[in-house]
Amino acid sequence: MLWSRRNLHLCSSLSSLSSTAGLLFFIPLVLISSVACILGPAKSFLSFSSPFAWRSAGLYGYYSQISINEEFKYNYLKREGEVPSSHMIRNGSLNQTVVLKDPTDHQPAHEAKEVSGNAIINRYSKLERLETMLSKARNSIRKAAENGSMTSKHEDAGYVPHGPMYRSANAFHRSYLEMEKNFKVYVYQEGEPPIFHDGPCRSIYSTEGRFIHEMEMGNFYRTKNPDEALVYFLPFSVVAMVQYLYEPGGHDRLAIGHTLADYIGLIAGKHPFWNRSLGADHFMLSCHDWGPYSTTYVPQLFNNSIRVLCNANTSEGFNPLKDVSLPEIHLRTGEITGLIGGPSPSRRSILAFFAGRLHGHIRYLLLEQWKEKDQDVQVYDNLPAGVSYESMLRKSRFCLSPSGYEVASPRVVEAIYAECIPVLISDSYVPPFSDVLNWKSFSVEVAVKDIPNIKKILMNISQTQYIRMHRRLKQVQRHFVINGPPKRFDLFHMIMHSIWLRRLNIQIED
Q: So where does this one cross the membrane (predicted)?
């Protein structure tokens, strides 16, 4: 049965009546899908593939491992003869006419024009005020970045970022304070649970459900006035779409794509904000493996929007200049109780550890090279009877985190929780919060081709260096912790900060 519920542990306590109502709403929505006529041309004006456009746009250069070239920092000048770069969005497009439904079309033409004109003027004057505020925030963060300190100089009654775990602690702290003061998110109300406005909270996809739940609670950043918003959240759950719209064992994912395309079409036809920016100030969030693929059904969503994804794979179109890498966290009970913390370095007897199924070629290479080969590098596809996975994490100095079928793995955060130095084994993975965190200071990156050299690489890390990395790992741990309700600098706020940074790097004009 296509619409059957298959053990999706949602964050909300939805009744069967509300779930049924939501499905009744979306069955016809899927059936009447018409992607092309709603979304227009497949090739959008906005293309964030050009690093020049982004480097010249805003603040990413102070954080990113990509935009560190001084030549590009804050260069707002356009090259002669060049089309406006992708950070400058003028009412949708240079070559597209944005047609908005006039709510006063029942009035005489001249009256409708006057009322409509006033509404447009008022709306865009609000937009200009928002852009002015963002400009001031950019200047403030720029000055903090130029300070170059590893410790923030800003007063804060709570946590103050410091140390080499941050690319620029001072700039990050200034940016975070600006976010707390200015960032507002509008959550579209269209759509019904369980496919919209809800998500899983007790599964490998918990990050997706917990974030949607917090946005629905509305205790942080959310505004009910869309004219006040800096970004717009599309509250659909890809996990729920797979659960309700996909037939297990089949290969047809069109129902998911059509539902998503219809939803964007509904949003674009009902509100002016999508057409105004071609989706560049909109964001979606997904921890499902199919999250990136689902966005390909809406070219503007794929090319322009901020996609917050666990599967942050650059070989599959993930663009770290506009997209956000989301940590994958497996909350089997929905809580992190008992998962945080571990023994000191001196009490960890195993050099490196991994246990997991044979998913993908990287894990195949890892198990082929190291399974039952070395007591220092303990690699399993199945742990021996009576051996606890969590206890092995806490006994190990380094925890191997190879990509599976997809690049993301919950083992990265599991290692951080257990205070075991994560070893990232992937060729295309962008680690979470790389815009502000210096991963090399508290983790180890191993290329796939170097899997045979893992022991040598890890043994070459001195005890002094390891203790230093362990201390830094404990300091950044707070950024990966799920709290209910959220606390400053925790996972929820770090996700929001990554989205805030992407919004800082675009400028929207009427």
A: 20-40
Residues 305-335 have pLDDT tens digits of 999 999 999 999 999 999 999 999 998 776 7
What whole-number distance in Å separates Cα of residue 294 and Cα of residue 317? 12
CB distance 282 to 302 below 8 Å:
no
DSSP string, 57-114: TSSHHHH-SS---GGGTT--PPPTTPPPPTTEEETT-SS-------TTTTS-HHHHHH
Alpha-carbon distances of 15 from 10, 12, 21, 22, rounded to whole Å: 11, 9, 10, 11
Q: Which residues pair with 313 in a beta bridge?
A: 429
Residue type, 396: S
Residues 443, 468 contacting (CB under 8 angstroms) = no
Residue-wise pLDDT tens digits, 34-72: 333 333 333 332 222 323 222 234 554 444 433 323 222
What is the chain's percent helix, strand, coil content, to nearest 5? 45, 10, 45
CA distances from 473 to 140, 146, 206, 447 (A): 29, 26, 22, 21
CATH for 345-480 is 3.40.50.2000
Domain ranges of the chain: 16-45+183-332+489-509, 345-480
